[in-house]
Each structure stands twice: as C-alpha cells, then as structure tokens.
Amino acid sequence: MAFFLASSILLLLALFGLPLVAGDFWAYQLTLYYIYAIAALGVGLAWGQAGILSLGQGLFVAIVAYLAGYSLIYAPFGSAAYAGIVLAVMIGSVVAFIIAILVFRGRTESGPSFSLLTLALALCGYQIVGSWSSVTGGFNGLSNVPALPGFGGFLDLYYISMSMLVLCMSFVSWLFRAPIGTIWRAISENERRLGYFGYNTARLKSVAFMISALLAGIAGGLYALQQNLVTPDLAGFNFSGDLVVFAAIGGRSTAFGPVIGSVLVGALSSELRDRFPWWEIVIGLLFILVVLRMPGGIVGFLSTLLPRHRRKAGTAEVVKAAKRIVAKPADIAMNKIHCSVGEVQILDGLDFSTTDEKFVCVIGPNGAGKTSTLNVLTGALAKQSGDIHIDGILIANPTPAAIARRGSRSQVPDPFPISETEPS
C-alpha cells in the first residue's frame, strides 16, 4: 500500500506538470484518454477481480453522459448542474445493479451469458439513442452542452479529469486490498465454493458491476463536459470493445493497468491514424500479442520482473464467515423431495431426517441417489418439489448460500489457491 501511495503521489505530480511540457494539443488529448481510463477501470474491476466481463460498459457511459448533458443545458443555476451530474451517476449505478441482480440471482458461474447480455443491451441502447431524435438528438447527438459552472478552458477540464482519475485509481486500489476484493477474486476462482461458505455471490457480483458502472458514469459526465457533445457512439459495441482492449492490454487485475492501456492505445491510435492507413491492424496485433504472451497485461508482465513480498493470509477473509456459522449439528428434514434432470428421475419422493445425531452415514449402490441427495441438501442441485427444513425452519429458496447459513456444507473439499486470492 505504501508503494501505491508513493507511486500515486509521483504520478499526480507528473500529470500536474504535463500540460506545461506536452502543449495544448496533448493536454486536450490526454484529458480524453483519462476519461477513457476511468471507464476502463470499471471494466478491470469487474473483469479482473470478480471475473464478470461486461461488453456493454459504454452503455452506462452513454446513459450518464446524456443525463449530465441535459442537467448542464437545463439547470437553472450552477449548483443544480452539479447535483444533476451526481444524480445521473447514481442513476447509472442503480440501473446496473438492477440488471446484474436480475441476471445473477439464482445462478452461478453465469459469466459468458452475462457478457452476451451486456452486449445485447449495448446494441439495443445504441439503436434507441440513435433513433430517439426528439430526446437524444438522434445520430447527430446532444450538442451544445455548456461548460461546468465555474470552469471554462480545456486546461480546467484537464485538471478535473486528472484529479478524478487519481481518486478513482485510489478507490479501486483500496477495493482490491479490502476484504471484498479478496471475496471477488475468490468468486472468480470458484463461485460455487463461495456459496457453500454462506456468501450471496449474486449480490456480491452485482455490487462489483454497480461500482464498475459508477466509474463508467463518472467518465460519462466528464465526457459530456470535455466534448460539449454526446453521440450514440458511446452506447455502441465499438466503444465498449475499446474499453475491454484498454483493460486487457494494460492489465485488468491492477489499478494502473487500465490507465496505462487507455493512454498507450489512445496515443498510439492518434499517432498512427494519420500516418498509416491500416493502423487498426497494428492495434489488433498488439492486443493479440498481449493476450498470447502477457495474459496479465503490460503491468502484470512488468510486476513479474520485480521482487515482491506476498501476504500469506490467503483466504482468511473468505473462510471467516464459515467459522461463525457452525455452532452445533443441524436437525435436517427433507420431505417428499422430487428431483430430475431432463427425463431422468433422480429422487422420487425422498424422505430423510436427522435429529441429535452427530454423524449420519448414507449407504447405497451406485446410482441410488446418494450424491444427488447431498447436492439437493446443499443447494447445488435444484429440486422440483418437496420441502427442506433445517432446525425446524423451512428453506424456501435452497441456494448454497441460504443453506450454508443454516449449517449445511458441501461434501467435496475444494480449497482456494492462495495465489489466486491475492491482489495483483
């Protein structure tokens, strides 16, 4: 943490004096890259920590950019414009949380389907903002967005964007090292096992996605200020894909990675666009090279070259809840349990109960349903009908987390590798 604080201070000083060295053009360009970096930080947090890849991050940038643009245009006084921008960021975060909780609730390991859903939402959002001309301005966009009250020139926006970037990086770095960061990485490694520890993984992933959208919203508000224009391109897949590329090239599992990726790819694109007609091929080849040779991105690759002292705590935060939960043997009753997979009936009206026994042994031939019984009991296998009572309490929604909090555990030992639950 001390290294991060020292490097952040040095970075802040360097960025503060950069416009004096680089000139007005690069100050303007870097402001845009900083905005992209904030949005890419959100991709890195959700993807690199919780293991959920959003292909529609630009949609939340666009939502907040449009709302912030309207706030600046129609605000009757300066403080109302500031309040409108903050409210727009909050709205984008709440929308993201609602989407995520609806997708993740009752499911585990839904990463690919979630990525496709966010892609579909981005495509739908692009069509809506592109065709709703009376509200969004159509494909011409929302133009003539005024400057932030009290600020005018592009240098002011440079320092505002730079300050917000450093604050967002510090916040993300703190999350990586906080207990919730450890839990997110454990979800990415083995989500089902986290459920057996009693964690509501759907809610935890939704929080990660909400914070990711919060960062996207901050970028959207800054984009409306910097460009004085909001266009449908923000909601499209191309921009969302760019943010994924920025995070992947820089390093999605670190706070510095998405920032370095955004600035590097942005500057490289700006230089090659007017000099090389096939500049996009160069960016694509760079992306392929990083994916194949540096899976952790540029920052991840460089970190392997430096000596580092790793904390040995491993999964202490993850298993702490399990130590709190189990106090005594649970009284379990399974009544009229029916369970099938496709047309195969696995359990047909099973009745099973325990009272004061500390140990219960279930014996039967292969295919009798022993493992399936335990999987239904722990929430790993869904039942079609029947009731499960633990200590006399009906478990209406027998998910692994809900049943684990009543004292039931998975039968299969499945520890987490320490290296996978440590911050990069």
Largest beta-sheet characterization: 4 strands, antiparallel
Helix content: 55-70%
Number of strands: 6
Task: Tell me the name of the CATH class of the largest domain.
Answer: Mainly Alpha
CATH topology of the largest domain: ABC transporter involved in vitamin B12 uptake, BtuC
Query: Ends: how far apart?
Result: 12 Å
What is the H/E string? HHHHHHEHHHEHHHHHEEHEEH
Number of domains: 2
* Net shape: elongated
Strand order of the largest sheet: 4-3-5-6
CATH architecture of the largest domain, by name, is Orthogonal Bundle
Unreliable parts = 310-319, 321-326
Q: Radius of gyration, rounded?
A: 25 Å
Residue-averaged pLDDT: 83
Q: Total number of helical segments?
A: 16
- Supply the helix-strand structural class: alpha+beta
Query: Strand share of the residues?
Result: 5-15%
Write a concise synopsis of the structure shown.
With 424 residues, the chain is of the alpha+beta class. The chain has 16 helices and 6 strands. It is elongated, with a radius of gyration of 25 Å.
List keywords for this structure.
424 residues; alpha+beta; ABC transporter involved in vitamin B12 uptake, BtuC; Rossmann fold; 2 domains; four-stranded antiparallel β-sheet; two-stranded antiparallel ribbon; 16 helices; 62% helix
Textual characterization of the structure:
The protein has 424 residues and is α+β, with helices and mostly antiparallel strands. The chain has two domains: 2-304, ABC transporter involved in vitamin B12 uptake, BtuC, CATH 1.10.3470; 327-404, P-loop containing nucleotide triphosphate hydrolases (Rossmann fold). Helix content is 62%, strand content 8%. It contains 16 helices and six strands. The chain has a four-stranded antiparallel beta sheet, covered by helices on one side. Strands 1-2 form a two-stranded antiparallel sheet. A hairpin with a 2-residue loop joins strand 5 and strand 6. Helix 3 (57-74) crosses helix 9 (201-227) and helix 4 (78-104) runs antiparallel to helix 9 (201-227). The longest helix has 27 residues, at 78-104.
